[in-house]
Amino acid sequence: xxxxxxxxxxxxxxxxxxxxxxxxxxxxxxxxxxxxxxxxxxxxxxxxxxxxxxxxxxxxxxxxxxxxxxxxxxxxxxxxxxxxxxxxxxxxxxxxxxxxxxxxxxxxxxxxxxxxxxxxxxxxxxxxxxxxxxxxxxxxxxxxxxxxxxxxxxxxxxxxxxxxxxxxxxxxxxxxxxxxxxxxxxxxxxxxxxxxxxxxxxxxxxxxxxxxxxxxxxxxxxxxxxxxxxxxxxxxxxxxxxxxxxxxxxxxxxxxxxxxxxxxxxxxxxxxxxxxxxxxxxxxxxxxxxxxxxxxxxxxxxxxxxxxxxxxxxxxxxxxxxxxxxxxxxxxxxxxxxxxxxxxxxxxxxxxxxxxxxxxx
Length: 361
What we know:
Structural class: alpha/beta
Distance between the termini: 70 Å
Strand order of the largest sheet: 2-1-6-5-7-8-9-10-11-15-14-13-12
Number of strands: 21
Mean pLDDT: 90
Low-confidence stretches: none
CATH class of the largest domain: Alpha Beta
CATH architecture of the largest domain: 3-Layer(aba) Sandwich
CATH superfamily of the largest domain: ANL, N-terminal domain
Radius of gyration: 22 Å
CATH topology of the largest domain: Rossmann fold
Helix content: 25-40%
């Protein structure tokens, strides 16, 4: 019985320097599961699921695997081809795989390699993926944390996509200064990885949709996504955007994060983008009741002996882009942020912890 098209392997595909056909790649997968590290075990499990004869595959929407969605493998193939077409990633290109395969981004990097015929190196998904690695690559995908810790090495990547968490202005400016050809991605599990990218430029550019992706807005100004090739129709998100055309938009922020104070709706992501031009460390904006018991805006940071709190006050005062109602009134210190692997801060879970200290601004 002939293998389905989506489970065929491009004859130029390489994994860690070796060519594999369908049968030998299954042997690699079994070996990863039996003897590999955790990230290799995830890879082995996914390879076996991908190479079976089913035309669909379950994707976990959380690390616990409690929530799953069933998607067509052909939709994942179409997503891989769209990325290749948009970024001009093609047969024989060398790629770095440094994302965990238990997440959609890591799965898609492998599928792109299998379908497009890439020569891919699989490394541990650590904060420093270039550790003991002196190679050059045509293409790679990273989280913002990985990109931040790899700035000196990123010149060895011709095309870099970054996603999975908030990308600060400070990181963008560092990428621009280092002349890295980098793109921020927009997407989620339901869109089978990213559906739009934006080039790292100054001033901040808008997101452009991949081929075959179309976007609109609902009455909340939230993004609606149509992607026939991905089997997606009228996917309504909670992300508010400025819509420029059916293929271009600027991200404002999630309505789930909106802070209501004194009759104003404040988008914390917008405040964070403005402040990140002055502040380079990890933080986020929320509200807290303190002293007066009235809720006020606060900048939330991880306690760090290297942080100069007087300097933070000066940096906030010097941020002229902030509107009056966007100026934080407190600094809230937490010993540690609760985060996803990719570095996305879990705001609600973090704020549910008792703060280490609260300071007036």
